Here is the input.
Amino acid sequence: MFHPELRRHARVLPRTLVTPLTVRAFRVIPAGRRLRPREGVEDVTLSSGIALRVHRPPQDASGSGLLWIHGGGYVLGDAAMDDRWCQQQAREVGTTVVAVDYRLGPAYPFPAPLHDCYDALRWLAAQSTVDPARIAVAGASAGGGLAAALALLARDRGEIDLAAQVLTYPMLDDRTGERRDPDAALRRLWNNSSNRLGWSAYLSGADPNIAVPARRADLSGLPATWLGVGTLDVLYDESRDYAHRLQAAGVNCELKTVPGAFHGFDAVAPNTAVTADFLRSQREFLHRALARR
Here is the structure.
């Protein structure tokens, strides 16, 4: 069932990495920014106290911007954990990439993480080197869910007209974790149990009809979208359904599915051809979406 290039990884990976025990353990480990070199990365702190990591493009950059939102199930992670991805986009897409250190649940549930991301988006749009008409939002897993929610918020407020959103195996629907999973044995790194934990921490009593992207009735007017997910990801069905709803609402949406791929496969198998193809599809979409018009 697993993609041939991912079978070796699937044999040793757990069905989930995020449990109440691992969340407590990960939180005593020093934050990613203290473990990774800062060369070429600018640290910015907003007036709200939210930290950003800014990755500058080459001198001949296009003047576009990209806001990156890290994953971690709404309970883990930081802006430094994806430095390599952010630097690659800055270099190869030629765009200013800003990664946001949004606050995490359960201490900071909805709407705090979303508002942190919106504050970061407003900062990016105000930079003199960035064309506010050529900005994309992007994220993976919980970050993908936040990117989708941020695109909805930006549309509703009408202050920033996004050019694109990139949703990588995004958490879009809290109802997935409540359903029986007939393929539970095939899940890797993320499953229904971790899904319930993450959504519970993020929602914490909030109205899901407002906070959860897949529950929003109106998806019209959203920016061009790239959505990528593996067919063995527990988030596959909700990702595919969201892409089809976007298309039905008149949104230009490119759905990239990877047969036999599990959640986070690109992170654990970075040197495979299947990951290279997945990331190339992302970059080509961003090149088109953020090109000068």
About this structure: DSSP finds eleven helices and eight strands in the chain. The chain has one domain: 7-289. The longest strand covers residues 224-230.
